[in-house]
Amino acid sequence: MSTSTTHSQPSVSAVSSGAAPKVSSSTEISSLTETSSSAATVTFPAVYRPPRTYSRAGKRKYRVTLWRMLVSELIKLRSLVSTYWLLALTLAFAISITAISVWTIGFTARIDSEGNMHDTIQRSVEATLLWQSVSASLNIVIIVVAILGVLNMSGEYSTGLIRSTLLASPSRWRVYLAKVMVIAATSFVATLVAFSLSWALASIMSASWDVHALTDSQWRLPWVVLLLGPALAALIALIGLGFGALTRSTAGGIGIVIVIIFVLPTVFSIISIASSELSWFESVNACLPSHAIDIAMSGGLSADSAQEAVSVSADGQAIVDAAQTAAKQWTPNWWQSALVVAAWSMVINIAGYARFARSDVQ
Fold first, then answer.
1. CA dihedral 213, 219, 225, 231 (to 10 degrees)
2. Residue 300 in this model has a pLDDT that exceeds 80
3. What is the mean pLDDT of residues 89-114?
4. From the centroid of its chain, how far is CA 64?
5. Which pLDDT belongs to residue 23?
6. Where in the chain does DSSP place strands (E)?
7. DSSP element (H, E) containing 125
8. Whether pLDDT at 316 is above 50
9. Nearest Cα to 269, choosing from 260, 259, 280?
């Protein structure tokens, strides 16, 4: 007698109650696997992406740029009390030295040819003297703006602010370029304002004088005083900035600037006078910043005056030739001297930027 095997499906109650169903054949295993696979397939919704709260314009809004670095450096410069003191000293020195120079010119003009003093001006005054009295304070002004340049760089290292600056703008070239532009512009504008006020004062003090107008060969003198003078002051301020980056010390940077502007010219002049074999020191001395500024601010008037004297007097040529023979060393003319000061500024700032860019902040 044959028996038949009945294949029964596991009851729903058994499955729901958690009891394991009894599986008796491979057919049941396959069917159960298909059923469980289809039941385990779950369709999830798309990945949630929050809405964008910023745009490309907003991202550009907070990006560090050269313009923003310029604004930052200007704010830092304005926040220092020393900046206002130095700018006030620039105005005070320029105006006071011009007033003293013009008063001296008027005092000597009251003396007649016989040496008698009068209450009024006895002879005419050259306009070149008035313009030169305006620029007479430049050798003092360059010291003030050089200190401003040194403080702008060394002050950040002494206070630790340089860490915050480089954290906000890791591109050091942008930071250094912004400092160069702000210091140069501030020094130029301050010196231009000081010289303009000095010229206004000189004009008021000499309003009643008999002033000879500038000749055709002296036409460049006002431009030299009012434009080249402030430009040279800005270059000296950048020299101070470069030394501040090199030394990272306020005292060290200011000390080096004073030595280059005041001490070295005196030493080289003494050496060139003491020994005729070392007369080439005079050429070196002419290439120092302070002497180069003196030559540049002359505007070539000494050479033009010598040429005019030669055309008037036959003996003038012999005097000029003798002077040129005696001074066998090369000296730059007025515009070459301005380029010498620019070369000083460029070389020192290249070295200062190399130290600034490659050295760690301590």
1. 170
2. no
3. 89
4. 19
5. 46
6. 125-126, 211-212
7. strand 125-126
8. no
9. 280
